[in-house]
Design brief:
Layout: H1 6-17, H2 21-26, H3 28-53, H4 61-64, E1 85-89, E2 101-106, E3 111-117, H5 122-134, H6 136-143, H7 146-151, H8 174-177, E4 182-188, H9 197-234
Antiparallel strand pairs: 1-2, 2-3, 3-4
């Protein structure tokens, strides 16, 4: 597994201090060689690894890598570039970011790695909640697995103040049903990505997280497949 070059971190730190088009254009070759290309190589290296333990997750530079250019149309911050580089890995049968997936981000201040269900449509979230209600013991076993507890500090993300309508307030999984996001992540020192430990940390994190992704994606994929069958019958 390739490690991220120290020159890539240096570029991101300099970009944070010089976030304007003129500086970026003068240093674009450094970006391409020390940030963009190492991320492409990382995604390529992850593809055969995913095939061994998460074959439903896609790793493709074209789909997985996030652009460095910021969308500033609706933001007060008009800085043109992101000061972090990131990749997301989604279920190959779903739209990008539709279901639960893996995520990693390298920034000047930290290395963030984890994933889960970040943003989903209301119908998909409702399907996940019904899945949680029906199979909460299985989800609890996933969250209490030794490796999951060793690497993550439980779940994070937005949640409702009360159990959503349609579920009893005293449901055994009330705390889980209130969740709008199901996230688990590790925040590590940024320089770790430049060491030989980088690959091991990436793989152990994604392996430990995969059972949660499988659980969360099951109802979303089932709903998608049911819709496809209905659509086929109407043709």
């Amino acid at each position: 597994m390739p490690q991220f070059p120290a020159a890539g971190l240096t570029f991101l730190r300099k970009l944070k201090r010089n976030n304007h088009r003129e500086w970026f254009l003068l240093n674009k070759q450094s970006y391409q060689e020390n940030v963009q290309q190492p991320m492409i190589e990382l995604v390529h290296a992850l593809a055969p690894e995913f095939a061994t333990f998460a074959p439903e997750i896609m790793a493709s530079p074209k789909v997985s890598l996030y652009r460095i250019y910021r969308d500033t149309r609706f933001s007060k911050d008009k800085s043109p570039y992101k000061t972090q580089v990131a990749a997301g890995f989604s279920h190959r049968d779903l739209e990008k970011n539709q279901g639960a997936g893996f995520y990693l981000q390298i920034a000047p201040s930290e290395f963030l790695i984890g994933g889960g269900l970040y943003h989903t449509e209301s119908e998909d979230l409702a399907a996940v909640r019904h899945h949680v209600a029906a199979h909460h013991r299985r989800l609890a076993a996933i969250l209490n697995a030794r490796e999951f507890r060793r690497l993550f500090q439980g779940l994070s993300g937005e949640q409702l103040a009360r159990v959503p309508r349609g579920f009893p307030p005293d449901h055994a999984a009330a705390d889980l049903l209130r969740r709008k996001q199901f996230l688990a992540a590790r925040r590590l020192p940024p320089d770790m990505v430049t060491t030989p430990e980088f690959g091991r940390v990436v793989l152990e994190t994604f392996r430990a997280l995969h059972p949660l992704l499988q659980f969360l994606n099951e109802p979303i994929v089932q709903k998608r497949n049911a819709k496809q069958r209905r659509d086929a019958l109407l043709k």
